[in-house]
Amino acid sequence: MSALSGKIALVTGASRGIGRAIARRLARDEAIVAVHYHSQADAANATVAEIVAAGGAAFAIQADLSVPGGATLLAKLFTAELTERYAAPGFDILVNNAGLSKRATIEDITEDDFELLLQTNLKSPFFLIKALLPHLRAGGRIVNISSMGTRAAYPAMAAYAPTKAGLEALTRLLAVHLGNREITVNSVAPGATATDMNEVARDPVASRAVADTIALGRVGQPTDIANVVAFLVSDDGGWVTGQQIDASGGQRL
Ligand code: NAD
């Protein structure tokens, strides 16, 4: 029996990047995984197909988390799928991974872009948790993917960093609020990780300068982040709650 045998997980933004690696890892540990996506249906279906081919269980589910009501709709679709597919009255693991970044200083950011980041990075995770709390079983796990950018002072993260800092504040208070249901709530804060979002970390040449700021001498890969999430959602991670765990290879800010 694997670490997550019999558990059901929802991972947002799982068609690519860190979310895809998390979905694959939780499925490898034998969770049934709902692979949420926004616009990349083919990529989400490919992730599901890969999981199923490896002997796991997964299904894709679509929702736009950049709009008010998007998270509540996702919760409805997810719980309907659980009833239809597994006659399941609840689920066990929620990973709020979907996120959006925009490099802009306070002078350059527009109010529309600020709203977009706020909705996608903070309001949607908030309302997804709110809508799914009645369905999260005792002993459940919530992991919010934040960013080491919350503690760095990067002027070009004028809107992004505050939205992720809000997610970390939410993590801490929910850990206290939900402790009596034995639900743990943690943030995982990636450092520079090679995904579509981080073009510097993705570029083998440009990433060398970043790698010099990282104790382990390289930028992160999506699986590096997924490994940390896998620990937090496992039984072994059950005594960790309300924390921000840096997953950065020892990146200096
Ligand atoms: P990515 O751009 O590959 O993935 C982001 C995911 O969010 C995608 O699956 C995308 O579909 C989803 N998403 C974006 N807008 C959405 C919307 N409107 N509705 C629904 N889903 C939407 O980048 P990634 O690096 O894999 O990012 C994953 C998480 O890690 C994000 O929350 C990001 O902020 C965080 N993070 C990444 C890095 C890094 O260096 N890559 C560093 C710190 C934090």
From TrEMBL:
InterPro entries: NAD(P)-bd_dom_sf, SDR_fam. The keyword NADP applies. The keyword Oxidoreductase applies. GO terms for molecular function: oxidoreductase activity. Keywords: NADP, Oxidoreductase. Belongs to the short-chain dehydrogenases/reductases (SDR) family. This is NAD(P)-dependent dehydrogenase, short-chain alcohol dehydrogenase family. It comes from Bradyrhizobium lablabi.
